[in-house]
Description:
alpha+beta; binds ligand 2P0
Amino acid sequence: MKASAIAHSNIALCKYWGKRNEELILPFNANISMTLNKFFTHTTLEFDKKYDKDILVINDKEYANETKEYKLYVGRFLRVVRERVNTDLYARIVSNNNFPLAAGLASSASGFAALAIAVNEIFNLSLDKNGLSILARQGSGSAARSIHGGFVEWLKGENENGEDSYAKQVFDENYWPEFRMIACITSTEEKKYKSRPSMQMSVETSPYFKQWAEGSDEDVQKVKQGLREKDFTLVGTTAEHSCMKMNGVMWTTKPAIIYQNQTTIELMHAIMQWREEGLESYYTMDAGPQVKILCLEKDVDVLVEKLSKFDGVEKVVVNKPGYDAKVVSEHLF
Ligand code: 2P0
């Protein structure tokens, strides 16, 4: 009753922000992401009668059952799993991320995708990719996308039961080998506002939420067209605009949700300035102060040189499109 899996994190080109069903984790709007080759989670999951409660260890730190990490996220997911496979066994989860936890680098995406893969293996569920994505989605929305490598669209679906809300691969990791996403770490502190309650506050209080949700589907179509035609400008401008529209909603939530720090803002200015000077790159941010920069391989060296000496940037990691989540034989305990 033990299995291990690896899943890569992903960064949205068109963002997900807001649920139409909180219980099943169903989004208001479609969204599309790129899976990252450098950031991943390795997880081992075991169900056994020797456990008298669930045990959760992430990056060598144990999270008790009273913590919000357990209650709001992992414990909730394990309840979904127990109901589905009809067991009352407790589980031990040991999970390692090779990147900072909860700092807006999609640790819940890779974490719950890896868990879904391990659950499928342990209980012989024989889920196909859609089924795996639906299971991962019930852990964390963005995890639906981390089942796949390459460029991935999460279909918002129409049905109330969520059976048509899963992610599918649009293009695999080999389709556009020159495409890059440079992650600039500007802080490794845990974020102040967790995505889950924050996006719900946006749904309830931002006067722009409705427009945000309605405009997103068109953005997804534009990014897909840009990918299909390998039109970097179309992908980049659409992604940057989607990020800013999401931030418009975040900033107009009551109380305001502001993830940027000073370095984040200075990087945004710099990227726009460099673009005016002919260096074509675009920024995107998520629920944290890190900046991810979309660019093509030909500009990576120049950008990395500039970013490495940028005040406030702690680390620069160049990502290519990454891989499908998968079962691995190496167990962490
Ligand atoms: C995204 N984010 O599309 C957006 C952009 C953050 C900003 O998905 O409540 O951890 O678990 O479904 O997936 C982060 O939210 O939220 C996220 P839940 P999740 O990547």
